[in-house]
Amino acid sequence: MKDLHLIVVGKLNDTNIETLERDYFKRLTSPKLTIHEVKAHSELLDKEAKEVATKLHELSINENPFIVLLTENGKQFTSVNFSKWMNNLNETQRIVFVIGGASGHGQEIIEKANFRLSLSELTYPHKLARLLLVEQIYRAQTIKANHPYNK
């Protein structure tokens, strides 16, 4: 299984959320998840898109990753179906999830995306969306391994 990557615009500066995220990171075994924080630019989408594009280019040197944008109008899954989707895709391609800044994604990144994912019909602060995605990646791992966490 290939490693997963998450590109996020902005830094996580909340110790409570950081603690929860670290807990899930300790539990993740396969696939490995790497988070790349890129600089936020006060809701200037073009500048933020350039930051994300630069990181995507670095991650694309040896292969073309499957780019998944987290967005409110993306596809929604149950946890079990997300696990199946992610694990099937991850057998053949590296997956790079992207969480944009407060104003969303710049056009350059939207055009590069292979897929759009929504965590819920609800709107979450980006810090929570990041934590929810990390938790769902861990949950997907436990579902694949038939671990009781998902029960």
Structure, explained:
The chain has helices spanning 15-27, 45-59, 79-90, 107-112, 126-144, and strands spanning 4-9, 33-38, 66-75, 95-99, 115-117. It has 151 residues and is of the alpha/beta class. The protein has a single domain, classed as SPOUT methyltransferase, trefoil knot domain (Alpha/beta knot), CATH 3.40.1280. Strands 2-1-4-3-5 form a 5-stranded parallel β-sheet, sandwiched between helices. Strand 3, helix 3 and strand 4 (95-99) form a beta-alpha-beta unit. Helix 3 packs across helix 5. The longest helix is centred in the last third of the chain and has 19 residues, at 126-144. The two termini are 24 Å apart. The model has no long low-confidence stretch (mean pLDDT 88).
